Amino acid sequence: MGKQVTVVAAAIIGVDGRVLAARRAYPSRSAGMWEFPGGKVEPGETDHQALIRECHEELSVIVEPGKRLGTDIVLGGGSAVLRVWLATISAGTPQLVDHTELRWLAHDELCTVNWLPADAPLVTQLRSHLSQ
């Protein structure tokens, strides 16, 4: 088996406490489902560097990573792990680049979208964090 891939994602918290959710455009099996934006860590990158790069590529924003949300989530039968961080936007306004829709969801709206199976367990932890 090859080296395990690390995927990072950002639970971006807006100034009003809402969370940015992004609806996937592809691949077909997950198109239309919602996710925390992010992507693969490239060789030589730290998780935070990848998170900043991915959010810039996918949303045209600069994010400031904060506290880690939850623990590693195993993907693809163990071929990858997902790591999610809380983040805030330090520059820019989210743009539709890789997604079909973006929504800012309040604490009580987080369960109103169809999250990707990998992201869904983190929604509960995120709701708990936001209610503190």
How are the SSEs placed, and which strands pair?
Elements: E1 5-12, E2 19-24, E3 34-35, E4 38-40, H1 47-59, E5 62-75, E6 80-91, E7 99-105, H2 120-130
In brief:
The protein is built from 2 helices and 7 strands. The protein is of the alpha+beta class.
Beta-strand proportion: 35-45%
Largest β-sheet summary: 4 strands, mixed
* Low-confidence segments: none
Radius of gyration: 14 Å
Numbering strands along the chain, what is their spatial order in the largest sheet?
4-1-6-5
> What share of residues is helical?
10-25%
State the shape.
Answer: globular
Overall pLDDT confidence = 92
- Kindly report the oligomeric state of this protein: single chain
Span of the ends, CA to CA: 41 Å
> Would you count the extended β strands for me?
7
Number of helices: 2
How does this structure look, described?
With 132 residues, this protein is an alpha+beta fold. Helices cover 18% and strands 39% of the residues. It has helices at residues 47-59, 120-130, and strands at residues 5-12, 19-24, 34-35, 38-40, 62-75, 80-91, 99-105. The strands form 2 sheets. A 4-stranded mixed sheet has the order 4-1-6-5, sandwiched between helices. Strands 3-2-7 form a 3-stranded antiparallel sheet, with no helix packed on it. A hairpin with a 4-residue loop joins strand 5 and strand 6 (80-91). The model has no long low-confidence stretch (mean pLDDT 92).
